[in-house]
Amino acid sequence: MSRDGWTSLALFFSICFLLFFNSFTDTTNPVLSQLARPGASNFRAPENLPRGAPSTTKDNYIYDKKGALYIIPIDKRLLPEKLAAELAGRKQGHVVPFGYRGIGTINMSAPSTSRAHYLVNEYLEGYEPYPVKNIMEPLYVISQRKQYQLDARQYSGRQEVWQTSREAYRFSRGDCEDHALLLADWLIAMEEDARVVLGEYRGGGHAWVVLLKDGKEYLLEATKKKGLSRSKPYPIAALHKDYQPVYMFNRSEFWENIGSKYTRSYQGDHWQKQSQYDVPTLL
To answer: For the segment 23-47, what is each residue's pLDDT rounded down to a tens digit?
Structure first.
């Protein structure tokens, strides 16, 4: 199975193996790339916005919900204005660690289809393609719907581009983090404890999903295309020694593995929660 890797684990990931498919939708089209973007939610404007609420865009229905980043180890909150300014200054075309005062990586940002950087949590938009009851269905549907392709081929040489969970469902091509974001967000919508994991697989950078359920840990390879069905149970994470997790996140929280990278456990003291991203809700 093809996996993608990035140029450096410190800058977190560049590019790895090539798996090319002939039939696809052109996601480099600027109209398609604007289907969604991190940090934005679609909802109807209330009659009276609270004072200081974000202004509307031209369609009057989309708001930028500027969130705050709470840095857990030092009990400090990075206010929305400062966080937005920090992200706006990031022009790199790769995933960038968010470090703070020598306490490790508190979060990460990644370039979007629009080239702007957003925290990795924001790529999980709270998107559910459609309701399902079978917990095995999302992985199966993604395997049938989405093809694997490296960012450099899909985005005219750009080495790293992250799709939001909404984009990942609508675009028929994407690499490992695009698959993982879609799968995790769908499972979260089903009220499951699913998280995107960033780390290494056989020496190359990779992204996958871990599902914590009923005291068990399941490793979900979102890029897998064969041998799946709606009835096949998810594999136990402890059986997959080739996966070496470094970071893990869901819609709001970000964890760093401060223990051995060879761990097969996704719970415990070696997983230190580094930050929580809080987005205010307009009522």
So the answer is: 223 333 333 333 334 443 332 223 3
CA distances from 263 to 125, 180, 268, 279 (A): 29, 20, 11, 32
* pLDDT above 70 (res 249): yes
- Please check whether residue 138 is in contact with residue 189, taking contact to mean a CB–CB distance below 8 angstroms: no
Tokens of 217: 């840990």
Strands 173-174 and 147-148: parallel
Residue 70: which of 278, 280, 281 has the closest Cα? 278
Q: Among 281, 275, 257, which Cα is nearest to 109's?
A: 275
Looking at the DSSP assignment, which residues form a beta bridge with residue 111? 117
Task: Tell me the whole-structure pTM to 2 decimals.
Answer: 0.78
Three-state DSSP state, 220? strand
Residue 281 has what pLDDT? 60
Which domains can be identified in the chain, with CATH numbers?
Answer: 68-278 (3.10.620)
